[in-house]
Known about the structure:
Layout: E1 3-9, H1 22-29, E2 33-39, E3 52-53, E4 63-64, H2 66-76, E5 84-93, H3 96-103, E6 107-112, H4 120-125, E7 129-132, H5 142-153, E8 186-187, E9 190-191, H6 201-219, H7 221-227
Parallel strand pairs: 1-2, 1-6, 5-6, 5-7
Antiparallel strand pairs: 3-4, 8-9
Helix pairs in contact: 3-5, 6-7
S-adenosyl-L-homocysteine is lined by residues 87-90, 112-114, 116-117, 132-134, 136-138, 140-141, 144.
Amino acid sequence: MSFRATILTLYPEMFPGHLGTSLAGKAMERGQWALDTLQIRDFTTDKHRTVDDTPAGGGAGMVLKPDVLARAIDHASENDNRPRLLMSPRGKPLTQKRVRELSSGDGVIIVCGRFEGVDQRVIDGRNLEEVSIGDYILSGGEPAALILLDAIVRILPGVMGNDLSGLHESFEGGLLEHPHYTRPQIWEDREIPAVLTSGNHAAIAKWQKEQAERLTRERRPDLLDKLQGN
Ligand code: SAH
């Protein structure tokens, strides 16, 4: 069975977005993954099709109603064991490890928040896993869902063509990746490091490892701490 994503959103027209183009789009055409959307508003029962209401306790903005959202989630997860995710700045920061886990499953159900967010009771009652894509606030969960799916789809078997290239990326080995170069050999007086054109594969591997360690030490010492189990 191929990977299937179901997106719950008030803006289904934002999908598949960029995932309909390039490698992800071609993989979708080949049937290697599929995406469907559910319009949350279709699960309202009142005449005005209301999806949000004012926050209990007062304050700015609006909150997505739990009853409407729960009906949409229940519809999506009928006879379905896919993980139910909620894009949320309060969620666990997304990592390549979690991306890998999700990409090896049947798919995902993703709820995209809007306004101030969603009623806490639906998060608890439907066991939503909150996922954050970083410490900043977007206006809605849709771009976050597209980013999560981009990361998942590119490592699905057969999508990238050269499956090996995925294994050497930043984060995969716990380090940032080494720098890259390509022709011309000299550009604006800058030369490609000689070792890379030496043909000495052992020396190249050693240089790449040193560079990866140097960059990680300079930019992301937190990753090194994690590697060393601190
Ligand atoms: N009031 C909320 C932010 C709401 S932003 C708070 O302060 O926590 C509106 C919606 O955008 C959220 O419900 C969520 O679905 C999405 N969103 C915003 N920032 C995000 C982030 N960093 N990661 C994932 N989703 C995000």
